[in-house]
Amino acid sequence: MSGAMFFSLLLNIGLLVLIATLLTKIPVVRNMLLEGSASIGSKAALTVIFGSVSIISTYTGFRAQSAIVNTRVIGVLAAGLLGGPYVGMGASMIGGAHRYLFDIGGFTALSCALSTFMEGFIGSIFSRRFKSGKINGTGIFFITALAEAGQMVIILLISRPISAALALIKLIAFPMIIMNAVGMVIFIGTLNMVFIEEDSQFAEKMRLALGIAEQSLPHLRKGLYSAADMESATEIIYTSTACTAVMITDTKEILSIKGDEWCSHLKSRTVLQPILESIKDQKPTIFSHVEKMNPLYPVLKNHMIVAAPLIKLDKPVGSLTMMVQKHWHTSQVNLNFAVELAKLFSTQLELSDLDYQRQLRRKAEFKALQSQVNPHFLYNALNTISYVCRENADRARELLLALSSYYRQTLENDQYMLGIHTELNHVTSYLELEKARFEEKLQVEVEVEAGLDCMVPAFILQPLVENAIRYGADKKGNRHVSIKARTQGRMTEISVSDKGPGIPFQVITNLLAGISVSGVGLMNVHKRLKSIYGEENGLKIESSPAGARVWFLVPAPSSFLHLQGK
Fold first, then answer.
1. Global pTM value
2. What percent of the chain has pLDDT over 90?
3. Structural class in CATH, domain 372-563
């Protein structure tokens, strides 16, 4: 008989698994389970459903010694765990009443009816812990075993004669306790499939989070300082996820928030402050369970808050906070989603900061170049013009216009990249003044390949030309400067050469090593080129007693378009 009893219980468990599977496919039941059966209608429906499950278990039970070996505990215990006290007690009353009426006056009718009430009550007691995810499969097994052991005790206390009750317990206790405990774990696991499916769908949303990031990240290029961009990023996350609310904060206040009516709770300072405090340790925090006196309780009663820190340069600068509906099942998807999205946001914030710093550095370099207008050059130029005024007024006027053009371009131009011909025009203004000073002792040759129109950093040539004029005189004081621009494969080579004594070896060594040398012109140009084109693309220098040649390479025009206007 024991084998037949185990087989009967196994068939009953299989039937209940089938029922559970069918229940998870019914949209109404599915929604009620996911929503936590908050409404009275949902609670009533779940009561009837699980009560019906217990009735089916009674009908499909195995008769043994005037008793019914059954899986009724699974229906009423599941009702209490999943639905709470009202559902649990309601289903147990249905199942218990039916059990009593099913076998009125039977040997175990009253004791089994009362034990059914007791099993529903046990499920109700553990409901809150179960819904909060604190009870796993092992816990479910032992709770069910406890409930069935309680049934055996009630049978011994109520059923008479005692000898028959004792004989029945010896026969059914072990198979019912073990099989129902195992069956309960399987039944709950089957119902949990609805949440596994829900998690899978959410995991799909996480994959879509790359799309969310792609849409959101452009709004983070200005950091956390643009209210409009923060609102846009929050809106994108909120509309793309199942979150009840989404909030982006700095370390002190809310920058943007989007959500349903629960948003008003998050705006409260008493609610917001714990969230802001939680990000100080740079770890994500889940707010799920608090005492009733806690300010967060009204929110966390039905929701869970996930706060992931936004980190920039190893310091928390804010948080990405999401509020989601609380379910009885345990899921890490919401936490993982928030954490990974926050990491992407943090990376973009660091990149935006680096970009901002790079822009500041470029502006500083630019201003440094502008401030490098040699006062000695201005003094010499004015002296030269003064001298020319006595000899040739028209030539003096031309030189004044050249000086004006040179300084206007130097001091007013705010473009970081210029066309090669624009840059050469600036250099030409400078050379006009130097030619007036040195007269026939200065010879300049400009050779630009036909059709060449590449982009170069603004004011990159003038320091090289100035250096060649200043230090490139031969023994007779003659200065010969050659400026050339030509194509070299996919690059453009721009060079400035002279026929002077060359550049001292130590000066070249220090320059290429980044060690400060006298004057800042060549060093500034070298550093600017490396910052724009990479460490390997600074100045190149050839030097001999017959002269020096300084050159650099820039990409072809098509590769350079993105640098315009920066």
1. 0.42
2. 16
3. alpha beta
